[in-house]
Design brief:
Number of helices: 5
Structural class: alpha/beta
Radius of gyration: 14 Å
Strand content: 15-25%
Shape: globular
Helix content: 25-40%
Amino acid sequence: MVNILLVSACLLGINCKYNGGNNTNKDIVELRSKFKLVPVCPEQLGGCATPRLAAEIQDGDGRDVLEGTAKVIRKNGIDVSSEFRKGAEEVLKIAELMNIDIAILKARSPSCGSGYIYDGTFSGKLKEGNGVTAEILKRNGIKVISEEEIDKLKCI
């Protein structure tokens, strides 16, 4: 039985979003009555400051960033791929230490997005793919859902 969930910290009201705010989701916060929630922010764990310039994956997705064939680029052109890889690796360590099977991560994020992420043009357009952290978790057998898919937890 699942009793611990890894959760993007911004969804729990922690001010770690790139602009210094959060993405509080009351439905996610209410999950604390059924599950132990472990908040993580891969970008902060990778060394990125808060606030920080927005970043998107260019020329690929999280898989490609992990393989070194795509980059995570800030809006000002700075490459932060190494910070995103480090943050993903640290989140994976936490998930493994806590024996976590399921993560609820922020939709469309270059770190946390699952299924769709922003396309790298900073235009709000989406492309298929996973963020760097979502990809590393999935590779290691951890189920990743977004806050938009929490109805999937009803089956657990």
